[in-house]
Write a structure and sequence with these properties.
GO molecular function, one term: FAD binding
Protein name: BLUF domain-containing protein
Domain BLUF: 20-111
Strand order of the largest sheet: 4-1-3-2-5
Number of helices: 6
Structural class: alpha+beta
CATH class: Alpha Beta
Organism: Psychrobacter nivimaris
Oligomer: single chain
Pfam families: BLUF
Shape: globular
Order of helices and strands: HEHEEHEEHHH
CATH topology: Alpha-Beta Plaits
Length: 159
Amino acid sequence: MHITTSQPLENRKRHGEHITLSLTYIGRNSDSNNGIGLARLLEQWRRNNEKIGVTSALVVNDNYFIQNIEGPRPLINEILVKLISEYSYLVPHLSEIEEIEERRWDGFLIKYLTSSAEDEAYTLKSFSAGADFNPYLMRSTQITSFLKVIFEDAVSNKS
């Protein structure tokens, strides 16, 4: 996932590199390794995304995750293709994709949900349709609001 930046600007714009996309998707750890393998995979993604200039916000527990990624249109499309073709065991489902003028995230933000009272307040009372964090039971608007609430301190510090 590399875009060559040595091309003249008009050639780079041909593929939409100047358009920033925001992609939100949900996933489930259908692997049998209790989230350890998922945590390792997400750390690998963090390193790769930082290298290519993609920003991200991720909420995860042992079973499920919500991720929003932001970056140039061609890169986001490459990531989506790779996610679907190489990581099908994560059972990814697209929640929302939109063009944005300005990125919401600075770097790679991550929140690991635990059974703490604070995390339960986020998931159970405000956003989840079930007894615990399961983004597959959430509407797209709930998913978007959930990410904003979880990372509101990081977003307000960016302003």
